[in-house]
Amino acid sequence: RSRWLPLRRAESSWRCDDDPLEVWRRCEESEERNTSKVLRILPVREVRFTQDSIANEFSDGRSLEALVEALQQGSILPLSVDFLVLDAVEVDRNVFCMNNRRLWCLYQYQKVVDTMVMVCLRVTRTKDPMLRQFLRAFTTNDCGHSIRRRAPPPAGGWG
Fold first, then answer.
1. Which site from 24, 85, 98, 128 is most exposed, i.e. has the minimal number of CB atoms within 10 Å?
2. Residue 74: band (very low, low, confident or very high) from pLDDT cuts 50, 70, 90
3. What does each C-alpha distance from 115 to 44, 45, 119 come to in angstroms?
């Protein structure tokens, strides 16, 4: 058992010691039901970050490098531990991860291995078209308290 304890207990219906092929089968079954929250396994490079920066350590004080080293040494396998089941949101077929530090560690691990690193995600899908429109338009930097008026187009129209 890894010395890494879950940072947050996984809420999914699978356990660390489950066969990855069985997990994959359950993911596909979940997809077929077309629920708003599905379990998916994707290449780590297909998952996007939701933040523009991350802290240098986890909330419990462990360094990001410690997780990267554990992945490189093989003491932690990405699809075999609960705390690497990451939460994500799918918007317009893009999957955005809510656990940016753990995703960053998996990205660093991907840089040094020859095989494709896969990650298991609990993906919430946006089904409401208004929510999709809101997310595309939501660019505020101050929680909507102000807005900047862009410069008008040059004189002469489309020119």
1. 128
2. very high
3. 11, 12, 13
> Residue 71 is encoded by which pair of tokens?
């992945």
Q: Is the dihedral of CA 79, 51, 88, 4 positive or negative?
A: positive
Q: Answer whether 78's CB lies under 8 Å from 110's CB.
A: no
Residue type, 37: K
pLDDT digits (tens, 9 = 90+) for 112-123: 999 999 999 999
DSSP characters over the chain: --S---SS---SS--TTS-HHHHHHHHHHHHHHT-SEEEEEEEGGGEEES-S---SB-TTS-BHHHHHHHHHHTSS-TTS-GGGEEEEEEETTEEEES-HHHHHHHHHHHHH-SSPPEEEEEEEE---HHHHHHHHH---SSTTS---PPPPPPTTTT-
| Segment 71-97 mean pLDDT | 93
* This model's pTM is above 0.85: no
**Averaged pLDDT of the chain:** 80
